[in-house]
Amino acid sequence: MYKETELWVSKTFGYDYVVVMKNGAKLPDLASNAGLKGKVRVVGSSDDTCSVQSHLNDVELKKVLMSDYDLSEDQVYIRPAQLSGAVGMM
Questions:
Q1: How many other CB atoms sit within 10 Å of the CB of residue 53?
Q2: pTM for this prediction
């Protein structure tokens, strides 16, 4: 039963990630990227990190960010996150 619940949550809300910029890369404004509308929802951000929910898996999300913002492999990292409570339900 746990797997069914986990699957429903993944399909409904997507996966939780923290996007981390490294090596001098600036965090792009993901919320304004028209290509990511409906695929990525920004939950919160700071200078070089951003919490997002996405229906894309981490590999797909990284590829899209690298392509859309001309980033190299070592400039953007995608970390799985557990967004819970009020933030996770936004």
A1: 19
A2: 0.75
CB 27 within 8 A of CB 45: yes
Residue type, 53: Q
Grouping H, G, I as helix, E, B as strand and the rest as coil, residue 22 is coil
In the structure encoding, which two tokens stand for residue 45, read together? 């951000």
Give the DSSP letter of residue 35. Answer: G
Using one digit for the tens of pLDDT, what is the confidence trace for 8-54?
Answer: 444 556 889 999 999 988 999 888 888 888 889 998 888 889 999 99
Strands across the sheet containing 15-21: 40-45, 49-54, 15-21, 76-80
Indicate the fold that domain 2-88 takes in CATH: Alpha-Beta Plaits (3.30.70)
**Domains of the chain: which residue ranges?**
2-88
